[in-house]
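A quick aside before the break. I want you to see a complete sequence-to-structure record at least once, exactly as it would be stored in a machine-readable document. Don't worry about memorizing anything.
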Amino acid sequence: MLDRLSSSQEDLEYEELREDAQASGCIRIAECADRQIVRVTGTLRTVTLRPRAGVPALEAELFDGSAPLDVVWLGRRSIVGIEPGRRLIASGRVSMSHGRRVLFNPKYELRPLGQE
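That is the input. The structure line, written in tokens, reads:
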């Protein structure tokens, strides 16, 4: 109890995200290894449109309280419901790009807005 009182708001949010990942049966992003097939959950922190090799690509940063993960949908300019602050579950094969974990064209489930 004393730890929770002395923790910052950010620390409490990160702990809540880690507990949510565990409760939903997902692996923590920090534990994801290169080329591993994973199912992760978290909150989208940023969503940007950034072309890759001349092809539109919607990129989002997913964070679960342990580490960030870049989620990239190639050939997409936008996806309804994919916006900062939204929680989702994503699954696919993790790859490493420039020292960051990336999921390309993952399967995903948007979490209900009431759970946020």
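Two observations worth writing down. DSSP finds two helices and six strands in the chain. Residues 9-23 form the longest helix (15 residues). We'll return to this after the break.
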